[in-house]
Amino acid sequence: MRRNSKGFTLVELIVVIIVIGVLAAIGTPTMTAMVARAKKSEAVTALGTIRTAERLYALEHSGNYAPVLYTEWATGGALNQYIGHGDLNGKYYNENAYSVVCILPNTFIARAKGGGSGGGAVNMDQDGSMTGN
Q1: Which is nearest to 89 in space by CA: 62, 56, 49, 130?
Q2: What share of residues in the chain are helix, strand, coil (percent, to 5)?
Q3: Which helix (H) or strand (E) holds 130?
Q4: Which residue of 52, 74, 75, 112 has the fewest CB atoms within a 10 Å radius of its CB?
Q5: C-alpha torsion 59→79→91→116, nearest 10
Q6: CA-wise closest residue to 87 among 114, 118, 48, 132
Q7: pLDDT value at 13 more than 90
Q8: Are 51 and 110 in contact (CB under 8 A)?
Q9: Domain for residue 59, yes or no?
Q10: Model-level pTM?
Q11: Is residue 113 part of a domain?
């Protein structure tokens, strides 16, 4: 008498499900950390662009930096001769996420806020020092 042995047994299926569960439990936090790093990297790159534009602006305006609200990137703000419309748009941050605050005429903080779900704020000052997550 020969049995028809097509397919998988219940034990084999359970083992495969457990292995997939373990891999998912290990991979999810790693993937989340990689996405957070990618968000910060995109923000740092754009903030560096803003910092360069601010330094060029200051060279032409007696060492004074320009304050820029997030709405001015698309409407002809002070830095638009250095940063084109859409240049700050990325995968996680768009141009509305960036702003510049001048504390003194010769001191500024460029800020990227948001960055999709769970994105925090990243700040860069005129010296290139970074703060935020």
Answers
A1: 49
A2: 45, 15, 40
A3: strand 130-132
A4: 75
A5: 110
A6: 48
A7: yes
A8: yes
A9: yes
A10: 0.73
A11: yes
Where would I find the beta strands (DSSP E) of 5-129? 98-104, 107-113, 121-125
The whole-angstrom separation of Cα 130 and Cα 109 is: 10
Tens-place pLDDT, residues 85-104: 788 888 888 888 888 888 87
Q: How many structural domains are present in the chain?
A: 1
What pLDDT score does 104 carry?
78
Q: Is 29 helix (H, G, I), strand (E, B) or coil?
A: helix
123 contacts 46 by C-beta, under 8 angstroms: no
**SS3 label, residue 77:** coil
Total residues belonging to the chain: 133
- CB under 8 Å to 39, separation ≥6 — which residues? 92, 93, 115, 116, 119
Answer yes or no: is 27 within a domain. Answer: yes
Q: Which domain holds residue 84?
A: 10-132
Mean pLDDT, rounded, for 33-37 = 88
